Amino acid sequence: MRLGFSWLVVILYHLLQKDLHRDVAEAANILGIFSYHLSSHFLVLRTFSRALVERGHNVTLITPEGMPPDIEGVRHIRIPKLNKRVQEVIESDQFLDFFGNKWMESVLAVSMLSNMSHDILSDDAVQRMLRDGSEHFDLVMMEPSGLEALYGLVEFYNASLMGLSGGTVSWKTEALAGNPAPSIYEPISPIGYSWDPLFMSKIYNWIHITEEKLLEGLIFRPAQLRIFKKIFGYSELKFNELRRKFSVILINNHFSMGRVRANVPNIIEVGGLHLSEPPEPCNIELQRFLDEAEHGVIYFSMGMDIMVQLLPENMQHQLMQSFAQLEQRIVWKNELLNIPNKSKNIYVIERAPQRHVLAHPNVRLFITNGGLLSVMEAVDSGVPMLGLPVFFDQFIILQYVKQGGMAEVLDANALNSEILTKSIRELLENPKYTLMAKKMSQSFRDRPMSPLDTAVWWTEYVLRNKDATHMRLNVDEVSPLRYYGLDWLLPFGFRFGIVFVSVIYLCYKIFQKNRERMRGRQERESGFLQLLNL
Q1: pLDDT < 70: residue spans in the chain
Q2: What stretch(es) of the chain map to CATH 3.40.50.2000?
Q3: Cα separation values, 351 from 307, 334, 344, 402, 410, Å
Q4: Tens of pLDDT, residues 3-37
Q5: How many CA atoms lie within 13 A of 18 on its CB side?
Q6: pLDDT tens-digit profile of 140-182?
Q7: What is the helix, strand, coil percentage profile of the chain, to 5?
C-alpha cells in the first residue's frame, strides 16, 4: 500500500513539474509599437496588454509620451517626438485642409508617417534596445499599415509579426493579410468615396482605389523603404518579403455592426475588446439626472479627441436651438461647462462615464461623431444613433450602422436646427430604430468567446506556431486568372474568338464579292451608255 502511494506521489510530482515547465515555456517576450496619438486606440491596447501580462507574458510597448498611462507589469518606451509631430500637424496651416482634400491629406500623411517611423527607430531608448544583445522578442505587434519601416524589427529579432488594428479595415490591410480581393475593397480615405450601389459609382470608386494604390506605391512605400534601408541596411527584396509576414491581424470590428466581410483565416474580428473592463462609475448628480428623466435622455458626445470649442460656432448654435425644443433631457459631454443661454434640460459634463450613461434604461438616443469605440458601445447597449461625422473613418463607420437600420447620418457642415430636430424626433418616435438597435446588440454580444479571450487565444496561437503562413492566402502561387475565377474564360474565349473571326471573315468576303459584282455591273452600264451616245 505504501509503495503504491509513493508511486502516486512521484507521478503527481512529475505532472506538476511538466505543467510548470509548460507555463514557463509559453511565457513570451512581446514588443508592441503603436505611434498614433488617438485615445480610443490606446483604450483597446491597454485592455489587451493587461490580459497578456496576466497570462505571464513580458510586454514592452513603444508609444507616445503619456499614451497610454503606465500599465502595471508592462515596460514602456516613450517617444517624445511623436507628441511633437502631432502638435506640429495640428498647428500647421494645412490642418483644416487635411479633412477636406484627399491629396492634401496624402501629402500630410506621407510626411507624418515617415517622420514617425524615423523618430521611433532613431530614438535613444530604442537604439539602446537594438544594441543590447540580451534583448529578444518572440512577437512584434503593431498597426498593420502606415509605419512599414518598422517591419525591420521583425527580421532583426527573428520574431513573428502580428497586427492589431484599432480602426476600420481598408484594401491595404486586406493586401497585407494576403487577401487582395476586389469584392471587399474599402478606401483608406473616405473623402470622395461613393456609397451608392449604382454602376457608375462603382466605376468611380474603382478609380478612387486605383489612385490610392498609386499614392501607396509611388509615395508612401518608397518613403518607408528609405528609412528601412537607412536604419537596418536590409534590401528592398527583404522589405517586400516582410510585408507578407503578418501571421494574424486582429481587427477591432465585428460583422454584426452592419458590414459582413469576406475575411481570410488570419483576419480575426475582436470588436468590443475594451468592453471587458468595468465601466467608469457615475457621480450622484448625473445619476439622479438620468433616473428622473420622465421623457428619456439624449446623450451627446463628439468623442475624446474632438473639443466642442473647435467645432464651428454656427454648429454649436444650431445644437442649442434644437435641444431647447425637446422635452427629453440632454447629457452633453462638453469641456465648456458654462455654456451661455443653456436650457434647463441640458446637463453639461466635461468627462462623461460614457458606457454607464449608454447602459442606462432611460437613454433613448446617442448623438455622436462616429468614433469606432463610441459606436461599438452604443451597439453593445442597443441605443439608436444620430451621426455627425467630422473626419476620416467616422463616415464609413456610421454608414455601416445606418445600413444596419439603427442610425441616421447628417452632414455636420450643413446642419440647421430644423433638420436636426426633425431627425432627432424621427429616431425617438419611430420604433424601428430601437428595434434594430436591440437586434444588433444581441448579435454583437452573442459569441462563443469574449473579444478579449479571442484576441489572447490567437496571439498565443501565433506564439505556438511561429510560422503561421499556412493561414495566409498565398496569391503568389495562384495566377490572376485562377484567383478571380476566370480560367474557364480561356477555352470559351478561344472558341468564341474562332467563331467571331470566322463570321467577320465571311461577312468581309461576302461584302467584297457584292462590291465587285456592283462594280462590274456599273462598268457594263457605263459602257452601254457610251455606245448609245455614239
Answers
A1: 1-25, 86-105, 181-185, 190-192, 305-314, 335-342, 474-492, 523-525, 527-534
A2: 280-445
A3: 11, 8, 20, 27, 25
A4: 444 444 444 444 444 443 344 337 899 999 998 77
A5: 6
A6: 999 987 899 999 999 999 999 999 988 778 888 888 888 776 5
A7: 55, 10, 30
Q: State phi, psi for 134 to the nearest 5 degrees.
A: -85, -10
Encoded amino acid at 527, one letter: G
| Upper half-sphere CA count for residue 22 (Cβ side, 13 Å) | 7
What SS3 class is residue 268?
strand
224-262 in b/e form (b: 16+ CB < 10 A) is bbebbbebbebeeebbeebbbbbbbbbbbbbebbbbebe
Letter string b/e over residues 173-185, b meaning 16 or more CB atoms within 10 A of that residue's CB = bbbbbbbbeeeeb
Burial class from Cβ neighbours inside 10 Å (0-12, 13-18, 19+) for residue 274 reads: buried
Answer for the pair 340, 357: CB distance below 8 angstroms, yes or no: no
pTM here is 0.80
d(CA 145, CA 181): 17
| Peptide bond before residue 68 is cis, with ω within 30 degrees of 0 | yes
User: What cell does 4 get?
Assistant: 503504491
- Give dist(CA 365, CA 408) in Å, integer: 11
405: left (phi > 0), else alpha (psi -120 to 50), else beta?
Answer: left
Tell me how far apart the alpha carbons of residues 455 and 48 are, in angstroms, rounded to a whole number. Answer: 8
The rounded distance, in Å, linking the Cα atoms of 44 and 40 is: 7
Which CATH superfamily is 280-445 part of?
Glycogen Phosphorylase B; (3.40.50.2000)
Contact 374, 387 (CB under 8 A): no
Closest CA to 135 of 29, 207, 291: 29
Beta bridge partners of 132: none
Indicate the class that CATH gives domain 24-251+468-477.
Answer: alpha beta
